[in-house]
## 1
Amino acid sequence: MVTKALKGKEVELGFVQIPVKNRAELLGQNRMPFTTKVNGVPAKVDKYGRLWSDFLKSKYAVGTEVTIRRNNGSFEIDTVEPFLKSTSVEVKPIETVPLELSLPQTKICPKEPELKPTNIKLEATEIGSVKPYFQANSAWIFNENVIQTKVIENDSIDLIVTSPPYNVDIKYNSHNDQISYEGYLEFSRKWMSRCYEWLKNDGRFCLNIPLDKNKNGQQSVGADLTTIAKKIGFKYHSTIVWNEGNISRRTAWGSWMRASAPFVIAPVELIVILYKETWKKNSGSKISDINRDDFMNWTNGLWTFQGESKKRTGHPAPFPLELPHRCIKLFSYVGDVILDPFSGSGTTLVAAVLDNRKAIGIDVDLEYCKLAKKRLTKEAHILNAKLAQSSDLIE
Ligand SMILES: C[S@@+](CC[C@H](N)C(=O)[O-])C[C@H]1O[C@@H](n2cnc3c(N)ncnc32)[C@H](O)[C@@H]1O
């Protein structure tokens, strides 16, 4: 068995350099290069004695001491001490509760982030009387109306990922999702103006909206909201088309097999990518933690993955974790502040915490805030025991 500490390039690219002095022990009579396995995952030893495998990509933090064992022609790699990094947050919580985050190893950032204090003001004295519904370590949930809330300071947010109500008559607890189209556009203008104020100059905005609307009058929702965002001052970067693949739900054909009035419906949604002033990101830790394959795949603006189940989350219109996860990894640095002003069941918050960012959610409905808290506890591995006594600041 050989023990060594992992270096930056090894962590980033997904290999372990087998030290020359240990080659006889680990490689035996094998002539390099050769294929093998690491912990059951296909791997390769190249001609320089580097053991490559997807298993190793961004799995450990830099400096982690690992043991390398040879076992019947394949390899087993393990940590000497599990190197679990808890998310550190520089902003002071409303109530100081020493909570820990237990992050799954695959999510660990390859480099130790230098988390700098953000200029977000979340101390009780600085946000007046507004208390979060919930706060633990690096996540905040506010049971507030996005149009009126005073909880977020201007120029404080790195990335907004959100899916607003679509005005398609979803039965939300506290929001009327069937108003006139003009009323809906005005509502959109109001909440997007708030988001614009809250973003830093190099802040980004990932807006998940429908391409269009077919029931109760057809409307080009995607185009209309993008135009409003640009009038507010947002700059346009690009649009990702999310193919939900839910063709089976189709029932409206219009005039079946006749040209008189057929309906064309695209089973896709949009994620419009906007920003405030500059696309080039200057603030934050400067630490990206996206791997090569994900970067290559996700910068192709056609994303295909399934939607989320209402039943599983208990919310009438959730998006899947994959959506905010991709946006967060692509468009933010480790330690950045991520906001979802329509946080619902807390999907963006869960993704942000798992991805080692700070998460702020706002939702007008208390029941959905409760759901989000539950999901953060369960899915983002915020440790339950201490949380239970500390979190319900409003309940
Ligand atoms: C499409 S859902 C968001 C779902 C979320 N992405 C998830 O994965 O669970 C929209 C949410 O906006 C909330 N909402 C509607 N109007 C609001 C307002 N004025 N301020 C804050 N939240 C609002 C609703 O309660 C609902 O939970």
Note: The mean pLDDT is 82.
## 2
Amino acid sequence: MRRLHSALAIAIAMAVSPAAVQAALYSDNFDTYVAGSNIQGQGDFIYWDNSEDLNSHGLVSDAFAFSGSNSLMLGGHGGAHYTDPVWQFADANTGVSPVSSGQWTQSAMVYIPGDSNTNYVDFNYMSSHPAPLTWSGNPRFQMANDVVTGPNGGSMPMAGLRDRWFEVVLELDLDAGQGEIFVDGALLSTYDWNAANGNEFDGIDYWAPADSSALYVDDISLTAVPEPSAMVLSVLACMGLMLRRKRSA
Ligand SMILES: [Ca+2]
């Protein structure tokens, strides 16, 4: 019986070990870019609607960083221009996305300075980009109102989130068409990912109006949620069979 438990423990360990976690399909830590450079055209970032717009730049910044020396500044242009870079998963020309089924985790580290008190920054999740454009919910960091809001009426105070890095996570089930947004570990929103236009994840449009205060984002990633491997499942099945035989003996 002890051997049985050991085998079971190994199987469970294999199922949850870091080695079983898949590498991110997309990720960016902004540390290979030049501070002050425009993010559009670097990494997997493109312009909104894949159309060059010099008034929409997000800037690589070395003012704050969760990893390395750089992050991406959203807003913070003092009224000079809005911010609108798109982190694109789908082919920028055909719109065909490799993220069209299964479960996914999209994570980002976020920093909001205590003196960022103007307007807002959106993380606009999109199920279709470029055209036809389809929105699929968004957390909105309302610096002016000191609150974070999300789809389906989600809301939480921003006060405890300032002047430190916190994680924003989208748990996405494309098979069920459901999105869940977590901010600093707390559930902000559960909602229908896209009732109107199929199930897909094409990219994130980071939008801030021209006079929005700065918000910084770092270590963004999109990772498939791994299912237990066939080997682990077969081991667990054998364990169940052996337990049943032992009980009936
Ligand atoms: Ca970084």
Note: The first strand starts at residue 26 and ends at 28.
